[in-house]
């Protein structure tokens, strides 16, 4: 490993390192869609564990209003938060006169579905599985039609803006995403 680090340092100080630096930039930008933190939303099912308090632990659904109804504290906001943020929100609510220094853990049991439409054999709603990619989603939907552009997809995420991505194994699909496979023009 030390030899590899020295070789990397040598490339960085030589002229060869300068020609390699621009090539690394596109790889980092292509990986960006896979580095998205999961945000909770309506339809997710959570397991919440409050350590030492079995009566406060259990499985709970995120309602259409984006909240989870927990014993003792009532409604806790979940939609729009990551799991870490939801755990902190729950700890804060439990600390407000109910428990001293509560330990809370949460995990997603069932994710909300994703949707795929356009030039796939069976467009529709499908259950999300962990670490799903664009190519996995297309395979679940029966593959491409003969008219499909198999180089590009469009993904609409929570904010409602559609963005173009390459149809590759590096692009992640998240629960609630709408994936559109366009038609080719020739």
From TrEMBL:
List, for all copies, the residue spans of the domain called Polysaccharide export protein N-terminal.
33-108
> What are the Soluble ligand binding domain coordinates in residue numbering?
114-162
Please provide, alphabetically and separated by semicolons, the GO molecular function terms listed in this UniProt record.
Answer: polysaccharide transmembrane transporter activity
Q: Which PANTHER family match?
A: POLYSACCHARIDE EXPORT PROTEIN GFCE-RELATED
Q: Which Pfam families match?
A: Poly_export (PF02563), SLBB (PF10531)
Q: What is the lineage of its organism?
A: Bacteria, Pseudomonadati, Pseudomonadota, Alphaproteobacteria, Hyphomicrobiales
Q: Does the keyword Transport feature in the UniProt annotation? A: no
* Keywords, ordered alphabetically: Signal
Q: Does the keyword Cell membrane apply?
A: no
InterPro entries the record matches? Poly_export (IPR049712), Poly_export_N (IPR003715), Soluble_ligand-bd (IPR019554)
UniProt name for this protein: Polysaccharide export protein
């Amino acid at each position: 490993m030390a030899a590899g680090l020295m070789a990397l340092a040598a490339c960085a100080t030589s002229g060869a390192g300068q020609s390699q630096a621009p090539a690394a930039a596109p790889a980092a930008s292509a990986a960006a869609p896979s580095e998205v933190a999961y945000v909770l939303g309506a339809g997710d099912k959570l397991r919440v564990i409050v350590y030492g308090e079995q009566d406060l632990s259990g499985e709970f659904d995120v309602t259409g209003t984006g909240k989870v109804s927990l014993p003792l504290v009532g409604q806790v906001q979940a939609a729009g938060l990551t799991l870490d943020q939801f755990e902190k929100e729950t700890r804060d609510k439990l600390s407000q006169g109910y428990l001293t220094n509560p330990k809370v853990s949460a995990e997603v049991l069932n994710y909300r579905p994703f949707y795929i439409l356009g030039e796939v054999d069976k467009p529709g709603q499908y259950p999300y599985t962990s670490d799903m990619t664009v190519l996995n989603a297309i395979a679940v939907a029966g593959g491409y039609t003969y008219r499909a552009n198999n180089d590009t997809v469009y993904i609409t995420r929570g904010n409602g803006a559609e963005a173009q991505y390459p149809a590759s194994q590096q692009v992640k699909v998240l629960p609630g995403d709408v994936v559109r496979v366009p038609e080719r023009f020739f």
